[in-house]
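1st attempt posting a full record on here, be nice pls
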Amino acid sequence: MRLHRIQAVVVRHIYETCRNFDRITDMVYWPVVDIIMWGFFSIYLTRSNSLRPNAVSFLFGAIILWNLFRSFQRDMAVGFLAELWSGNLINLFSTPLTVSEYIAGLIIVNLLKSTVGLIVASLVAWFCYAYNFFPMLPLFIPFMLGLILFALAVGVTTTGLILRYSTSVQGIA
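the predicted structure (as tokens):
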């Protein structure tokens, strides 16, 4: 694996993300909507005495981590679909780029995008609902790594299904 080829994949997807409003929406908007929606729901449950006080913390932590999983899995498959939609897949693999270098580049980009979504969701939870996720972050790192590996497996499986059955199954991405 050559580092400059992986870096080229990363730069290409970062350029696409910065210039494509859909990618920014997926990265920032939906985690914010999820935090606000689940925040209102947890306030409702807290006021109706249906929840213990610690359950709200579990709910916010779970939705933040769910956004991490969902964004990593989605971006893994959609990153590949973007190459398919733009007709760039043939160009990529006519170069010396290997599949492992391409996947490594996608993983790095998805880690960056998921981290941005995680930070935005955590900041919204902190400002709107006084839920501070950052002190608990070191405790969640092993769990987050497990989620990322599972999301990677689901994303690669989805990409394989798209390769096998073409874009007719792109809805599962």
